[in-house]
């Protein structure tokens, strides 16, 4: 039997876990924070007697957060159809850099994120291809180890159906190639940085897979390509054209969603955060986030 108030104390300590769940489900820091805030609002709206009856406040909050995220995922598809250009998940800074810039008492959700393979840009983009129910079942079960019996209560399906949803999602993840090691990725990204800085198209072409694809997200707020740029040569030419149009652009090697990436700054302001997918020593995908609303954790 819990003592009065202990359920509330336990609930307050779940925010970090809930933010981690919500970000993997939504790919948006702002939406994740809103979803968690709404879950807490529902918790604190319960009578104290009801709170004290709940043996596991964390499980209750996760269930509520999962349902809120499921609803948001359903409406997100319509919103993203109206989005200007491609939509990409919010890029996450490294913890050390975040603390260095903002202090350990920061309330930003990015500061609570556990950086692992389930938040890499490549993984999140695969999650975006799933149905909302697949994404919830897969993330909660395969990433956070929640039992299908509990997931069933979130998605409104039987445990057996949830198991099938997760299996379907798992097949999509398996199709994606295994990522390069951090050391290999860091080396390739460093070479890309040097070739980009020297505007060496031939060197960039050598570093890019012939079938590479670059996707940019400006959200209609800054200028960028609205459709993916396909082919290593076209991407290299585009990158050099950007460098020509942006004198004073500073490129920095930074961790992006837990793996080596690049940050472009101009006059001290972060303009672009780029994540890379590397296979067999070459860049296969570039995701360039330029929407200022998605770069707040980097400013």
Structure summary, number of beta strands: 6
Secondary structure class reads alpha+beta
**Helix proportion:** 40-55%
Count of alpha/pi helices: 13
Radius of gyration: 21 Å
Termini separation: 46 Å
Average pLDDT across residues? 90
Compose a concise summary of this entry.
This protein is of the alpha+beta class and 299 residues long.
Task: Please outline the helices and strands.
Blueprint: H1 6-12, H2 15-26, H3 29-45, H4 48-53, H5 57-82, H6 95-102, H7 121-128, H8 132-143, H9 148-155, H10 159-175, H11 182-197, H12 201-207, E1 208-217, E2 229-230, H13 232-245, E3 250-256, E4 259-266, E5 269-279, E6 282-289
Parallel strand pairs: 1-6
Antiparallel strand pairs: 1-2, 3-4, 4-5, 5-6
Helix pairs in contact: 2-3, 2-5, 3-5, 5-9, 8-9, 8-10, 9-10, 11-12, 12-13
Describe this structure in words.
With 299 residues, this protein is α+β, with helices and mostly antiparallel strands. It has helices at residues 6-12, 15-26, 29-45, 48-53, 57-82, 95-102, 121-128, 132-143, 148-155, 159-175, 182-197, 201-207, 232-245; strands at 208-217, 229-230, 250-256, 259-266, 269-279, 282-289. The termini are far apart. Mean pLDDT is 90; it is low at 1-5 and 98-105.
